[in-house]
Amino acid sequence: MELLSAQMGDYMTTFEDFMKPYGLVSKIDAFGYLDYLKTHPEEGRKQGKVVLVTADTPLKASRGEGKTTTTIALIDALRARGVDAAAVLRQPSMGITAAGSKGGASGGGKASLAHPELVDWGLCGEMAAIENAQNLLVSFAEKAADEGLLDTILLPRVSEVPSRSLRQIAVDRGKSNRSERVVLTPTCELMQIVVLSRSMDEIAQRVAAMTAGTKDGKPVTFGSFVDLWRITNMLGGAVQPAYMTTQAGSPVYVHCGPFANVSLGIPSLVSVEMACALHDVVVVEAGYGADAGAQKWLDIAAREFGAAWPTAAVVVTRATTWRDDPALRWRYPFHINRLEGLGIATFPLVNLWEGEDGEIPDLRETAQQLGFRRPIIGNLFRDGGQVVSDQLNDLITALGVTADGVPAGSLDAESGAQTAQAQVVQDLQSHQGIDIVDQMRWIARSAYGVPAERVLEGPLFADSLAQARSLCQGEGLDLNDMVPVAVKSPATMTDNDNAPENERTVTLKKMEVHTGAGLVQVNLTTSLTTPMPKIV
Amino acid sequence: MELLSAQMGDYMTTFEDFMKPYGLVSKIDAFGYLDYLKTHPEEGRKQGKVVLVTADTPLKASRGEGKTTTTIALIDALRARGVDAAAVLRQPSMGITAAGSKGGASGGGKASLAHPELVDWGLCGEMAAIENAQNLLVSFAEKAADEGLLDTILLPRVSEVPSRSLRQIAVDRGKSNRSERVVLTPTCELMQIVVLSRSMDEIAQRVAAMTAGTKDGKPVTFGSFVDLWRITNMLGGAVQPAYMTTQAGSPVYVHCGPFANVSLGIPSLVSVEMACALHDVVVVEAGYGADAGAQKWLDIAAREFGAAWPTAAVVVTRATTWRDDPALRWRYPFHINRLEGLGIATFPLVNLWEGEDGEIPDLRETAQQLGFRRPIIGNLFRDGGQVVSDQLNDLITALGVTADGVPAGSLDAESGAQTAQAQVVQDLQSHQGIDIVDQMRWIARSAYGVPAERVLEGPLFADSLAQARSLCQGEGLDLNDMVPVAVKSPATMTDNDNAPENERTVTLKKMEVHTGAGLVQVNLTTSLTTPMPKIV
Description:
Two copies of one chain form a homodimer. By secondary structure, the first copy, chain A, is an alpha/beta fold. Helices cover about 35% and strands about 20% of the residues of chain A.
């Protein structure tokens, strides 16, 4: 803790009262700390600027571009330049890591967390607690069904461990043989609630508003039959972000929320708010590609739930992802230009692999031809933050922070960042109340480049829309007030990314309301039929 | 930690190197500490004596007699007398607590743990990690089945959250519709392995020896197709006991293993070994009644797995349990006399409820008539350890420890404890290799009072015995080398506890081998058909 204070400055004195060592990490009472800041406005706090780390759309879901590695390298490099930077990471899914379906998400090589094994192998049991709590809700729904309060159960059970055969199950075999499905814990509604909530009271209210099932066709929420304290007691540790460091000692907060393909894919809002109160620059990881993680940070977290609008973005790609598939080469510039157009100073970052050092001049030239800002390029695994440290002048300038070797107060005039701010204000107007299909059309246009006339509806969509509308009405809600969450393959933005721009379509396939989280999941393009992977 | 050292004496200096604060508790690298003691024989250590806290057979499974409350009151009282006593508790099942099926297991009133909410609501995620690890094994088995390495999967999935409808499920609905069952996490084979193992290597070996399923009728173990490090990595935190204190500050170690009705029902062996190295008296809780928890501590932990034989036992009852059902009144004296006959100084303890103080003279008289040692009686919830502190002279004398107010070196001559030790030596000879049905007959006689000729076999038993034998043979094992674990209702010892002694029978219903744990589960009497409760 003393080391921490020395690193992090004055604001740690109070903050430390809200931290407890937890083995090799510390856990933070983020709700308590943010509440303290609210009730003690005289207390000093920083107003950290958010740098969003997102990525090119990956060629395959299982192939990461290196967002976590980049995030870690960036804060190590910024701190080496004298900037008080910290990172906020999502907790990876242990089940997926343990199953060998994907490496961990703790960085790599010289750009790694200290104790990466902790973050890869379940951290402090946060996700397991969320799993148990959602499963307990299903058990209470089952009891309610036994008692005649429900005749269908809509909330799925969850499992952190992937298993193909749990996608579709029948429970109570030999008796009711009720059909159920099991979803992956990090994608479940309760995880979304923990990501979005700013207090335990808010969590309890949202759990109460979750739809348990229906009785005689009318929706029934959990608030009508569950003691909410049973659920919030289970979540006592899960709502606390973990404090860790990189191997170089830079501060990292880890909390909640992977899987931007089928859920939010962003860390908890409180972890970012807290980091912004403590640091000048907060690098936030949101994945997979910019069409998923960045879209969700901007359109859901920032616009609808009050999270910080990023001052800058870093869009990671591999040298190969960017260039080797001519039909998909449009995606990377699309992401960069989109974010830049929103007034976010957006930097390309090429994460080199072994043997690619020779490509740097070519990569720089391509970036220049495309009108990008000067790209940040390096083998982050091999060299860590050191290799990008002296490439950060433009980023530091865009952030308006002081750093070693950058003249104080210089501002990023050429980027148009300031003129674009006017546009941002308009973009930050909530979409709540706008017709939900129009909201989806807006996402298709802005995040995937597909205009309204090419947003199609699949054969089941109209029915699922009507059902979603009816479910909301039954609970006194308006479907148009729900915030849409796109559910799609992480490797595609449209129905046909390989087609020419004017032929690409987006198909809305079905929707499902999460009344507790205040979200509506909308499946589109080549969405997964289920978020429960198998072991590969 | 400084407080801890002051409380616990010299041996803490080294021990503290193996502890880490973990929020409001500490976690202990017990494997590391015990290994250190082995490799540093010059290092001082205590040779603590074990006091087993067990209970009368409860009238209902959901009605605890107060074992945890007693355990806590006892160590508080012993420490008040100057004895260095500590407790080892099992971690309760959060799912059961959260579901409201049973109160927590963290003591009550003045005989409570500090921070009981932690132990009741998932502690540090230990059980959740065991759940994930066993479920991951099932997922790997499923993958092996997809690849043709298995045609049946025998290991059940687990859930800490109870759910009636998970007792029998069909997975891969609409395709293979494979029948499965889900068992409660604390009862699963992997939990048994963590309870019994003394190193991570032993855990890995035992996981490798777990039966995944069969291929062409031949058993296949997990060692043949799973990377064991994936499982042991998941268990990194789960193998570490938690250090807590009572509200009075007495040391308590909490680790693993509730549910003596369907599994072991004892805390991890390493947590008890570690406590014995650190304290003069270690009070170990094993439940439910003596026919379950004590039977399993003595016959499984001590005799077959090298755990400490208890020097003394305390058998908890309520005033009502003991006396109010005339047909069941035989059970309490049976337990006391059985343990006393094994050379264990056995003390009745009557845990009074509000309004029962007036019964003390009657209770003492009954105890005397039954030839018991002087009973320990008090309202432990209301009064805590203080109410029994001055009733512990006989126990302290039996333990041969020094305490305030007891002459040093006085020994418990009248109890016959020493002459009975000869018998104990014989009882401690392993039963491995003896015919497994004879081993069950021995348990029925010694723990339930039913002789061999009244141990019956149910209609399915012969088949399940043959299958178990064949499974073992297929893995190069001998069924007779497996240690039997009785699976039965916690509220009955025989098929008909209400019948006269010479009519009581025990029926062996079926068996199931846990080749990794080295155990064979034997269902008998009114065993549960499934260890997956429903929410009540």
